[in-house]
């Protein structure tokens, strides 16, 4: 295949978005797109380029006092009659237009066209963000070459519709168990009903007042919800066991340990088992490159409520945020599209931030 990422295409973030969308790259099928990206970057004299699996990293080494990361994933969710791209007026339709080849195009465009950025920049084009964490390119790099990720600040170019979404909330999955004593339902007074006991668990959730926390000007709204309930033996048996699965989304001022302590306090008197946890990330907007980034955007940041790869950087002590042109509500949607004007606005913002003064 001839590389569609020609110099002319690389010079224009809109044309580049379209070219990237038109290289099919459903998760675990990123070899072709990674080959194209790697070939381009290896030809750029001001970058040193490395590859791990289907993740490509390129960096400047200008001796600047600060280093920033720009990162975009190369993969998409499965196609849904939305490949290749199509244009309708100011809108580009297709799988990956919003999530997130328009954002990834920024990183590739700047990598090629900005030989002397104000900070040293590490550009990541990584595989397998849309599937389980064990395939995630940033996760694999963090294990194999953690030094590649060293930086003072990171921007993940995920869809945020042109605003800054900072940090992210943590998430904890747990199971609250109630116990009882089995009996025939015809003589139920010999037993203790574990499903009835779960009523108290649900009552505590229903009356639970979730916190709202403001950190660095960003609002985070917590939530604690029953997401599944399991119990019952047979139609004529008083059940002795019931499980309520509870998902707790917690603001990034709480560590996973603090979140767990809070959860146990809420369900005092019940057996609580934590099954899965992912830490949140503080917005970290105090770092100098972050402040300058916000000034370039010129609009107030908001807190990210879902979990994103921002938390991987936060876990390494690197403040990170999300910024991209796509509409996050259209990600993974068959009508996925991106506005051309949003691509141009965001490209101008990043250029203002990174171009030498
Ligand atoms: Zn994404």
TrEMBL record:
Gene3D superfamilies assigned to the protein according to its UniProt record, in alphabetical order: 3.30.70.360, Zn peptidases
Domain of life: Bacteria
InterPro entries assigned to the protein according to its UniProt record, in alphabetical order: Bact_exopeptidase_dim_dom, Peptidase_M20, Peptidase_M20_dimer, Peptidase_M20A, Succinyl-DAP_deSuclase_DapE
Catalyzed reactions: N-succinyl-(2S,6S)-2,6-diaminopimelate + H2O = (2S,6S)-2,6-diaminopimelate + succinate
Key words of the record: Amino-acid biosynthesis, Cobalt, Diaminopimelate biosynthesis, Hydrolase, Lysine biosynthesis, Metal-binding, Zinc
EC numbers on record: 3.5.1.18
GO terms (BP aspect): diaminopimelate biosynthetic process; L-arginine biosynthetic process; lysine biosynthetic process via diaminopimelate
UniProt pathway annotation: Amino-acid biosynthesis; L-lysine biosynthesis via DAP pathway; LL-2,6-diaminopimelate from (S)-tetrahydrodipicolinate (succinylase route): step 3/3
Gene Ontology terms, MF aspect: acetylornithine deacetylase activity; metal ion binding; succinyl-diaminopimelate desuccinylase activity
Cofactor: Zn(2+); Co(2+)
Domain Peptidase M20 dimerisation: 170-267
Complex and partners: Homodimer.
Name the UniProt record assigns to this protein: Succinyl-diaminopimelate desuccinylase
